[in-house]
Each structure stands twice: as C-alpha cells, then as structure tokens.
C-alpha cells in the first residue's frame, strides 16, 4: 500500500491493494486535459507546450491525435459525445464534430476576446461551463503572449440558444471545475495569479440553484503539497483533486480521506476504462493509470 496514503479508514474501500501505478507514456513537455472515449476505448490528452493532442489506447498504443492544436488545454465531451476543447492560442472553446471538423463555440464575451480557456465541463442539460484565466496568454510557453481583454471569469455557455453568462467573477485564476454527481454543487479550483509570490490557491464550492446560477460560494479545501488543478467526482460524491504528490480524495465535507501517490506533480486526470474506474493521470511529462474501486461520476 506504499503507493497510497491512508488518512481516513473510508479511503481503503476506494482503492485496490493489488492495483499499481502504470506508466502509459512518457517524454512529453507538460501533459494536461485528459478525456476518455469509451466508445473507442482510448484516451486523448494535451501535450500542451508541444501544441498537440495525443491519443493512447491499450491496443493501439500512442500516436498524435492533433498537431498544431492551438495549444488546447482542458477537454471534455458533450451530451452527444463530441469533443469540447479549451484553446489557449485560439482564445476560445471549440467542438470537434463527429466528422472531424471543428466548430468555434465561444470566442468573445460582450465583444471582447476570451483570455485562454483552461478547463471545461458539460452539464446534463448540455450547457458548457468553463474557466477563463489569463495563464495561457501570459507566456509564450503555453500559447503565446497576448493582451487580456477580460477578467478571469467562469462562464456558462448554452449551445441551444448561444447565450453566454458569467457565473463567477471573483476568481484570480479559475482552473479545473467539476459538478457533484447530482449537479447540486459546482466545485471550482482557484489557482491565483501566475506570478504572485503566494497565490491564493484552494478549491471552492458553490450551490447550483434551480435557475442555473451559482450561490453560497465558500472555500471547500486547500490542497497541499502543490495545488489543485484538475478535479473530478466519483459516483459516490467524493471529490478527487490533482496535487503536488499525486491525487487526493476528499469527502463532500472537504475532509481529506487519502492519497494516491505519484512520482511527479499531477496536473489533471480523468476516470475512464471499461467501468469508469481507472484513473488516467496527466503528471508533468508522463501519463499514468491506476485502477480504483470506485467509478467516476457518469458525467465528468
Ligand atoms: Mg487546468
């Protein structure tokens, strides 16, 4: 069990004593944005500074899914199974159609260009929720320096009518986001200002009102060592967070239950595999996987 850190007894039933961290692929520059395609039995993920999206499958191994990806970071799938992506360089959210063509979904808010969308989730009603911090346009490393035109907001886009609303406007660096399985809560990571000496870094939680607005925002937990970036819920309502030493598992009250220890900083991860119980971890220059004893929430 040395690859786990057990903090509360309840963590023991969420992991497997005979499952090990597997290295799936190595040698990237910085991995991000994993998304599982169960229908194709494959994982897509960003190799962000290399401006490409990679594809891995058990049977087909590793290959390039998309070169010149406009520095895509986070990915998810919509209710129709289409890939929805955050593009730093393109400063937009776009969707890959089933025929492979790409449709721009969101590029501007009130006439001003988005900053560099970082991470994205789709709610059961098809609305697309995403964070838009400044990180991707503050360096040439992850998309290219550009002027910001908007504050670092969190948005909800409704592709049915094209409406775009700000759902949170008091973050310095909104990052990963994730609904609870019942969608009554939305967790949003705050990673603060990129060049601050001591950036504000924690996970906040909001209640999702019936009208779709967020309410009652409060600090849920602080991740240490390192900080949260990507987050996911399992179907039992635990929140899993990336961290400097691996992946942390928290109960809905924000209490740390345990950790899966990983040799390098984890930026993002997703549940996948045949039963949605395998964690795929984008960790610095590598991609790892480990089977767990809990399934990811049906809508990541
Ligand atoms: Mg992120």
Automatic annotation (TrEMBL):
It comes from the Bacteria. The keyword Hydrolase applies. Keywords: Hydrolase. InterPro entries: 6-blade_b-propeller_TolB-like, SGL, SMP-30, SMP-30/CGR1_Lactonase. Residues 30-283 form the SMP-30/Gluconolactonase/LRE-like region domain. This is SMP-30/gluconolactonase/LRE family protein. It comes from Methylobacterium komagatae. The lineage of its organism: Bacteria, Pseudomonadati, Pseudomonadota, Alphaproteobacteria, Hyphomicrobiales.
């Amino acid at each position: 069990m040395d690859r786990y850190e057990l903090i509360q007894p309840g963590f023991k039933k969420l992991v497997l004593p005979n499952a090990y961290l597997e290295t799936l692929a190595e040698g990237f520059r910085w991995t991000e944005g994993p998304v599982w395609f169960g229908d194709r039995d494959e994982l897509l993920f960003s190799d962000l500074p290399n401006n490409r999206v990679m594809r891995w499958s058990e049977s087909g191994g590793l290959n390039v899914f998309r070169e010149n990806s406009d520095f895509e970071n986070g990915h998810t799938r919509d209710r129709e199974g289409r890939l929805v992506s955050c593009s730093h360089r393109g400063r937009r959210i776009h969707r890959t159609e089933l025929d492979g063509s790409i449709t721009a979904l969101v590029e501007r808010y009130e006439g001003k260009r988005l900053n560099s969308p970082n991470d994205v989730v789709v709610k059961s009603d098809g609305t697309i929720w995403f964070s838009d911090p400044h990180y991707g346009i503050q360096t040439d490393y992850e998309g290219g320096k550009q002027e910001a035109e908007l504050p670092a907001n969190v948005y909800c886009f409704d592709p049915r009518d094209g409406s775009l609303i700000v759902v949170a406007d008091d973050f310095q660096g909104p990052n990963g986001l994730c609904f609870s399985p019942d969608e009554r809560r939305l967790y949003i990571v705050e990673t603060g200002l990129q060049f601050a000496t001591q950036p504000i870094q924690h996970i906040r939680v909001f209640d999702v009102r019936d009208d779709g607005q967020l309410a009652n925002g409060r600090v849920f937990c602080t991740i240490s060592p390192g900080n949260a970036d990507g987050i996911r819920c399992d179907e039992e309502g635990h929140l899993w967070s990336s961290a400097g030493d691996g992946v942390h598992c928290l109960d809905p009250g924000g209490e740390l239950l345990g950790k899966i220890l990983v040799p390098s900083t984890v930026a993002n991860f997703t549940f996948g595999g045949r039963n949605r119980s395998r964690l795929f971890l984008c960790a610095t220059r590598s991609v790892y996987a480990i089977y767990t004893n809990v399934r990811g929430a049906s809508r990541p």
